[in-house]
Write a structure and sequence with these properties.
This protein is mostly helical and 166 residues long. Helices cover 70% and strands 0% of the residues. Helix 8 runs antiparallel to helix 9.
């Protein structure tokens, strides 16, 4: 299909994903960039944010976090990638220890998908880093009501419990 139309965004995105899933993190970048280029040719805010999101993943795996941050931010323009895009943005902000920014970003992710267990876990971690223990404990309780086997939140609960004992 790419021989017939090398600019086809769907095929470029699919080829990039195929390579990304095989652990070739640098190779898919060009395919994702070509998909983005095609999608933004006439509209800077395309209907499909998936190639931007996938480009962000490719860049993270290459340790190019600043570029990944920009790609993820562009992916959240599309509603389908808001929760996962904001989750990745919050992870990157947490990596830089920008806790206030990370909290804002993870809240945006949770607005889109309140039941996301990974986002809830990350928010508990961020609240703990901000020393907002009461809020973290409340979120832990709410999260465990939704999913008693949320192991990330259970781990955070054990950390908070051990901190209060010391």
């Amino acid at each position: 299909a790419l021989r017939r139309d090398p600019r086809d965004s769907r095929c470029n995105n699919a080829m990039g994903l195929w390579l990304l899933r095989r652990g070739k993190f640098a190779d898919p970048e060009n395919y994702f960039r070509k998909a983005v280029e095609t999608l933004t040719q006439r509209n800077p805010n395309p209907l499909d944010g998936e190639p931007y999101f996938n480009l962000g993943l490719s860049l993270i795996y290459q340790s190019r976090d600043d570029e990944a941050f920009d790609a993820f931010y562009k992916s959240v323009w599309n509603a389908a990638f808001m929760d996962s895009g904001y989750f990745q943005l919050a992870r990157l902000a947490s990596k830089k220890q920008n806790w206030d920014e990370a909290l804002d970003l993870i809240d945006r992710s949770l607005v889109r998908n309140w039941n996301n267990t990974k986002s809830r876990h990350l928010k508990v971690c961020i609240l703990r880093k901000l020393n907002r223990i009461a809020e973290a404990e409340k979120l832990i309780a709410e999260s465990l009501e939704l999913d008693r086997f949320n192991f990330g939140v259970l781990f955070e609960k054990s950390l908070l419990t051990s901190d209060s004992k010391s």
